[in-house]
Amino acid sequence: MDKKLWNKLVNEEPLDAAEHIALEQALEAGDESLTAYYLSHVENPAPSLAWRSELNEQLKQIAPQPVRHGWKFWAWGGAITASAAACAFLLTVVMNSQQESANPVQVANNTPTTAVVENAPSPQSKDLGTVLISAHQADETQASLGWRAPRRSHNLTSGYSNW
Amino acid sequence: MGHWLGATRLATQNDFDLASEQALVAKCRKQDYDAFGKVVDAYQARVLGYVRRFVHNEDEALDVTQEVFIKAFQAMAGFDGRASLRSWLFRIAHNLCIDRARKRNRMPAQMSMEPTIEGEDAFDFADVRWDPAQNVLNIELETVLEQAIASMSDKLRSVLVMHDQEDLGYEEIARVIDVPVGTVKSRLFLARAHVQRYVRAYVDSHNDWESSPKGVN
Questions:
Q1: Which of A120, A130, B54, B75 could form a disulfide bond with B97, CB atoms 3.0-4.6 angstroms apart?
Q2: Does residue B5 lie in a domain region?
């Protein structure tokens, strides 16, 4: 290789076509050189396991932690539990009310009535008028709340007209 | 020389095929720790082998190699896949080695840019073609080669190692070190010439020593 080309290579100057061909030929010959052969057969020993373990620890530290949805679990779980508890409470209240209302109350003339409230007077301790009023009020309350269909009165439906 | 004659070449041994590399890269972009572990397994020895030639200290080489993979893991989301994973890792390694050299304010021993042997065939590589059947190299020659490689400038050594040791192509090397392809070719030629000249000087001095009369007072 002439000195002119050598200097161009050293100074990293652009080459003309002939110089470029000369360089390509030199590189092709160099691919078979001792240097290329030696380097292509150099063994690269792997780092030790301790090195790898240390790297793993460092990578774990910078790796993004998996997104935890614990707060969502507790929020939804709490809401569902609260809803279930509320439903159970309401169901219990309704069942108790229906059970109490299903117990007939003996009034003075032995006519059963279904409406009984907790503070309803006992037929033995109160007079009949008080008992009837209390039973009526309880009945109206249950009907207004929708717990029971309104009691039908035959007297009113048969001959009543507001026209 | 027996320990490097017939040694398996690592250049293509651990490379992924295109499809599996793309799948692996896709997982690594999502910071998949296990997927990146496979990348480390595949390239740790080669990256270390490259870095080792620039830091001249085993502990520092191991530290820099760890840094390469940590930086790669952190920057994986930005890896666009235009370059191969291999050359991208070498780019990171190359930049880290350059940074280290600058921080140490180490001035690498620049090879003389003047040819010491003038003439048409001063750097004709054909005359030293390696024929394993006819030539016997020994540990001493291997040591001389390593010394020759270590004594050249970083910019020449990086091209030489990437091309001859890591089997990267000219274009790939150009992307890694961010220079034109022609510059890569020039540097590769100069690097090989440097080694050839170094070995030739060693052989000449050895021949002079052998041909000199022994026991002369």
A1: B54
A2: no
